[in-house]
Amino acid sequence: MISVRRAVVDDVAVVREIGLTTWPVAYAGLVSAEFISDGLAQWWSPAAVERGITQGITLVAVVDEHLVGMVGLGQEAGFWVMWKLYVLPGYQRLGVGKALLDGAIEALPVGTEQLLLDVLVGNEQAIRFYRKNGFGEPRSTPDRDLGDELIWMAREL
Ligand SMILES: CC(C)(COP(=O)(O)OP(=O)(O)OC[C@H]1O[C@@H](n2cnc3c(N)ncnc32)[C@H](O)[C@@H]1OP(=O)(O)O)[C@@H](O)C(=O)NCCC(=O)NCCS
Predict the structure, then answer these.
(1) How many A from CA of 9 to the centre of ligand 1?
(2) Are 142 and 115 in contact (CB under 8 A)?
(3) What are the residues whose beta carbons fall under 8 Å from the beta carbon of 63, sequence distance 6 or more?
(4) pLDDT tens per residue, the chain (157 residues)?
(5) Three-state DSSP string of the chain
(6) CA–CA separation, 66 vs 61, rounded Å?
(7) Which of 27, 58, 73, 74 is 20 to 30 Å from 9 by CA-CA measure?
(8) pLDDT for position 19
């Protein structure tokens, strides 16, 4: 059974481990080794993961008492953005990603109209998952320039 709960500061190390394990597998062949090591250092440092828990919304998925996936959302310029959604390679395609996404939407403040995310161009597995779950072209986005490697997607709530 998959359960989803809010992450607490005690979960920092395990949540971080989900990123450190999943990123290199998911992004090998899509981006450079440098993009992966820079991204892990910037977005998966203990401090960054702790900020996501204390200042944003971070949820974890639990299967047989193991944390097997996480989702991280934050606010930027009035938009809610799902910055992270990662399921350990051995637990993908079991419904964990969907359970985390459903939990994330439930955790948003009542009245939130749109959920944004950024995804790597070429990450077809993820893009297919997002399309199937109602994400498409956003109506509007924060001003931040994502560069050539990432695109915005959005779901109307
Ligand atoms: C993308 C990701 C978050 C999706 O999570 P997931 O747990 O694999 O997703 P789900 O199991 O809920 O759904 C994935 C697929 O499995 C299918 N599925 C769900 N339960 C299933 C089951 N019991 N048996 C077979 N297939 C199943 C779903 O229909 C879905 O099909 P689709 O890929 O054709 O849309 C996950 O694969 C992942 O972490 N990937 C690597 C990292 C990544 O790219 N993250 C996104 C960054 S933006």
Answers:
(1) 27
(2) no
(3) 1, 2, 3, 91, 94, 96
(4) 999 999 999 999 999 999 999 999 999 989 999 999 999 999 999 999 999 999 999 999 999 999 999 999 999 999 999 999 999 999 999 999 999 999 999 999 999 999 999 999 999 999 999 999 999 999 999 998 888 889 999 999 9
(5) CEEEEECCHHHHHHHHHHHHHHHHHHHECCECHHHHHHHHHHHCCHHHHHHHHHHCEEEEEEECCEEEEEEEEEEECCEEEEEEEEECHHHCCCCHHHHHHHHHHHHCCCCCCEEEEEEECCCHHHHHHHHHCCCECCCCCCCCCCCCCEEEEEEEC
(6) 8
(7) 27
(8) 98
Angle in degrees, 0-180, between the axes of helices 46-55 and 12-27, rounded to the nearest 10: 110
Is 138 in contact with 154 (CB distance < 8 Å)?
A: yes
CA of 93 to the centre of ligand 1 (A): 4
Q: Going from the N-terminus, what domains does the chain have, and what CATH number goes with each?
A: 2-156 (3.40.630.30)
Residue-level pLDDT at 44: 98
For residue 128, the ligand 1 atom closest to its alpha carbon is 35
